[in-house]
Amino acid sequence: MNTQNAEFLKKSLLNLGFGEQLNAELDKQIAANAPEFKLSLQHEFNQKTIDYTLHFKAGDNKDMFFFNKYDATISHKDDPAKNINQTFFINKGSGVTAKEAFNLMEGRAVHKQLYNLEGQKYNAWLTLDDKNLTESGNRKINHYHENYGYDIDKVLAGKGIKEMENPKAKEELMRSLKKGNAQQVTVSKDGSDKKYFISANPQFKTVDLYDHQMKKIKREEVLEAAQKPVKNLKEKEQQKEELPAKKQSRKSKMSI
Questions:
Q1: What is the predicted pLDDT for the residue at 121?
Q2: Which helix (H) or strand (E) holds 100?
Q3: What is this structure's pTM?
Q4: Which helix (H) or strand (E) holds 12?
Q5: Which of 54, 96, 124, 196 qualifies as a cystine partner to 39, CB 3.0-4.6 A?
């Protein structure tokens, strides 16, 4: 058995979020020297089950194996017709992770570092396109490159999200959103703090907003540009006079 090849594959599985539970079976299959084989495992995210089937294939000289792709299925036990299937391809041990695959299949966007045909790195937001399928029935992947102009940091700035005010909390929020998670945030409004979930929406250069049951909420009901602090009594009275006009135009001014 090519131990160096086996260790590379194990490291790839770990980096892609499949853990180490497949290592023993991986060694067994490599030792059997079959031209190709499959490994299966199951994860649970957000109380939903997702099954993975990982595909391995021997090289032309049969001295190395390659992890080329994996199939993912989110099952709906009450209605199998609603099951979601998608195949994700792996390039040199890197690609969409197990959790990112779940998030994409749930309809959220993931931010990834990718490689073009010349091997150059670039960053892009990815989403699955439910309306455009490949011949095999796989959803095509939409790419929103950096020049598309989606900056989630700017989208969330000044909207009363408390996590954006703390550098560490902001960094964690951005990292989670880029992995495709629906991340909980604290929104200050009308003198009180309330919890919501948000996820990135690069297509419309905004974010999607959810309540604690993950039901979508209209963004303008919660997220709005924070008002400037009132510096003196004269400015306060001026704000009161302008308030009706602002209410009329609020909807047209929303940027989220």
A1: 87
A2: helix 98-105
A3: 0.83
A4: helix 3-15
A5: 54
* Inter-residue contact 102 to 79 (CB < 8 Å): no
Cα Rg of the chain, angstroms: 23
Cβ 54 vs Cβ 67: under 8 Å: yes
Q: What angle do CA 148, 220, 145 make, to 5 degrees?
A: 10
Dihedral sign, Cα of residue 120, residue 125, residue 128, residue 132: negative
Both tokens of 240, joined, read 């009161």
For the chain, which residues make up each domain, given as ranges? 3-105, 152-253
Number of other residues whose CB lies within 10 A of the CB of residue 165? 11
Question: Are 22 and 54 a contacting pair, CB within 8 Å?
Answer: yes
Note whether 110 and 104 are within 8 A (CB).
Answer: yes
Measuring CA to CA, which residue among 49, 47, 45, 42 is closest to residue 19? 42
Walk across the sheet containing 48-58 and list its strands.
36-45, 48-58, 65-74, 84-89
CA gap 12, 8 in Å, rounded? 6
